[in-house]
Fold this protein.
Amino acid sequence: MACFLGIDLGTSGVEVVVVDETRRVFSKSSERYSIYSPHPGWAEQDPEEWWMDTVKAVNKVLDQAALNSLQIRGVGISGQTHGTVSLDKNFHPLRRAIIWMDQRSISQVKKLRGKFGRRLTHITGFPIACGFMVPSLLWIRENEPFIWDRIYKVILPKDYIQLKLSGV
Amino acid sequence: MSRMLAGTLLLDTAKRSWSREIINELSIPYDFFPLLYESPQITGRVTKKIAKEIFLKQGTLIFAGGADQVMMAIGNGVVEMEGLASRIGTGGLLITVTDHLVIKSNKVLYTIPTPFLKNGFLWGRFFPGDHL
């Protein structure tokens, strides 16, 4: 029977499920990872930990479900939003990800509000807040120019898992 | 390189594309940002190299997917206009479906095609707060 694998890269951990075509859940598994806070208000996670825990959870769930990998038709990925993963030319993370709950970018948020007013919300449909990609990126540009200069791509947390799985 | 979405504050949600206006005004290089896909689109396949590390066959399809709370709402069947989902995790969100753009400064909007609305939007309000 054709099955599908669902991966949810959450904030406190990764959860994986196997469902069949009728959406019956065959098996689930999860792994937890850390949030690093080297300074008050900062919240970071290590993309390599996301990946290693995802591999562990996927392998565990398929083992439990006693399915071989041939029966998994496709993989759908959901995840925590807004966070910033900065990658170099080889798609390696340049620093830990700045996740959605991070509060370091207060001054960047104030500048964005001053510069754009409501226009930014009108275009995006979102309020301006710390932890979203734009203020976090502006923070990196202002405070970690040595990282900024090496950025090749910026992606969201769950996209790092897609990148590792598919290489693109 | 692929993918998504609105919570970056860089997406022109009506046009479903990166906002050149915002990116240019902030003097951020446009090529920092990957290609965008709609949630149900296929973005790639499991590579040979990764198939040795994980119990997935080479070539297994990978779908774009999306934001956790929005995917949860769809998984719970919130795909039609009357549907409403409430999700309380590390963050909380009340979420419903619209067929047109709704922009409010205290709410969030995601562009998600649903089985019933090809160009649908899922519209939400973070907890704590008032109702939709």
Summary: The beta strands of chain A are 3-9, 13-20, 25-32, 44-45, 72-79, 85-87, 97-98, 153-155. Residues 3-166 of chain A form a domain with the Nucleotidyltransferase; domain 5 fold (CATH 3.30.420.40).
